[in-house]
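User: Can you help me understand a structure? I only have the sequence.
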Amino acid sequence: MNDKNMFIKTKEKRLKPFLIAFGAFFLILLCCSFFLFMQSIDYDFDNLIDNDITENVQSEAEKQSNVYSVSELSGNSNILFAVKDETSKITLSFLVITDFDEKKMQIEFIDDESAMTRMFVTDGEKGLKNLVAGRYNITVDRYAIFDEKEFKTFLSKFDGITINISERIDYKSYDFNLLLEQGQQSVSGDIAYKLLKVCNKDSMELVLCDIVNSVLSPKFVGKAESLFKTFVNSSTTDISIVDYTDKIDKLVIYVNANDKFKPTPYIAGE
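Assistant: Let's start by predicting it. Here is the structure, written out as tokens:
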């Protein structure tokens, strides 16, 4: 017998016990796995169906637990927003008046640039709050004052703002042009800013309502932390990180609620 045949037979003798041992190990492992599986279903295949049903019920329960309603909310807040140019002239100011107890949010456009500017130049944010309290009998809880450039930058963070244009706009100036057809449409934050610059006083509150309603949506509340940082860095405000932390859960409920109430133009006495 030559050396080559001896080598092959020797190799076969060594391989055969290894294959037998490996096969036995695999068989034992399979039996153990099957035993553990049967134990997990209490030796009853009907439990497989029960487990599926239980998982589906739990999944449905989780979905139900995420159903929000504004009935969970209470309290109120009055927030003043103002925009000023490089000379400290107030070019836009409005109040967001929210009453969760009465389930309403109103937007009040302050149509007196000269008085707001005079009070701001004389007494800063305190002057603006005093003017609002004296003229509208509304106590301002928080305020945010933007430079025009920063306000534009902040609004540019929002895309998909739904605006209802009451009549066609074709505006041209040295600063910018703006062309919008009549009807409801989705615009960028930059376009919304330009619209606020050119719309007449009669439609200002309606436009502001559309902007606020679009901003207070699940899409943007999902980015609330980064947007709040931009908001704080873009304005002079007394809205703090503590306010944000305290109110973000309430905001999440509001924007996701099936019975969410939308912003409306302010009506005195209501």
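Now, to help you interpret it: The mean pLDDT is 82. The CA atoms of residues 200 and 211 lie 16 Å apart. Let me know which part you'd like to focus on.
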